[in-house]
Amino acid sequence: MFTVAHSDGSFIKKIFGIILPPLESIPLRVSSEGVKVVGISPDKMIMVSLNIPSLVFERFDLDNEARLFLEKEDLKLAIKKLSKREKISIEYSEGDRDLRFKIINLKTGLERIQLIHIKEEGEEPPGELEIEHEAEIQISTDALSSIVKDVAVVSDEAEFSIQKNKLRIRSMGDLMRYLAELDEGRGVLSITSKSESVVAKYAIDLLKTVVRGVPKKTIATISFGPSKPMRIYIPLEGGAGVTYWIAPRSG
Question: Which residues contact 203 (CB under 8 A, 6 or more apart)?
Fold first, then answer.
């Protein structure tokens, strides 16, 4: 039904590795436009949308559109040791019980096969979200990961706010408090806000789950607003990209 191939195994490892932490099963969709994963965490608090255009792949052969639910642990094992020195061919024929990863070492020519079990059913979100946010920032994934790690020591909640063109991230626990104030060019690359004051709160465990898979030294675009899901967009090579939606906390 389809065969897609890429000559850099580390790319395949990155694009699939980035979506694994929040999901229990992987809803894979392959169409003429490319490869897409739109999934939701078991607790319905995180939604993930991965888009990989067909032009990203060196080979993209498709007979019919395919919608598969992949076993997470099998996919995790298949990508675990992929490297730049390996070419990956992802293959599926109608009626197969497994998705095939054909992995070829470009130096030695050695070939191995990894099978990813296809589940009979799984869960997809009702549809992708379209939400207009009051605030948007651009920040490095390294800085974001560091902030989330620091906030997690203090409490289970992070408050994001825009105050007079400053990004403020605050958290208060029983014994400690955390406050970071960031300006354009100092901590964040850009800040855009539709009002002088925007405040939103999010569970730190959800943010920890998301940043666990994001690549380093990449620019993330984060959008948020009062009582609205946070949107985190991470660009990937070749026009691919992943979007996370994180449920807000009330109050």
Answer: 45, 156, 157, 246, 247, 249
Contact yes or no for 172/200 (Cβ under 8 A): no
- Quick: pLDDT tens for 110-143: 999 999 999 988 777 777 888 999 999 999 999 9
Kindly calculate the radius of gyration of the chain based on its CA atoms and give it in whole angstroms.
Answer: 20
119 CB burial (10 A radius; 0-12, 13-18, 19+)? middle
Q: What are the start-end ranges of the E strands in 46-134?
A: 46-53, 59-62, 66-71, 86-92, 98-105, 111-119
pLDDT band with cut points at 50, 70 and 90 for residue 251: low
Please, how many CA atoms are within 13 Å of residue 75, restricted to the half-sphere of its CB?
25
Residue written as token pair 């490892």: 13
- Please check whether residue 47 is in contact with residue 245, taking contact to mean a CB–CB distance below 8 angstroms: yes
78 phi and psi angles, rounded to 5 deg: -65, -35
DSSP H or E run through 139: strand 135-140
Return d(Cα 103, Cα 115) in angstroms, integer.
Answer: 11
Which tokens go with 3?
A: 């065969």
Other Cβ atoms within 10 Å of 127 Cβ, number: 7
pTM (2 d.p.): 0.94
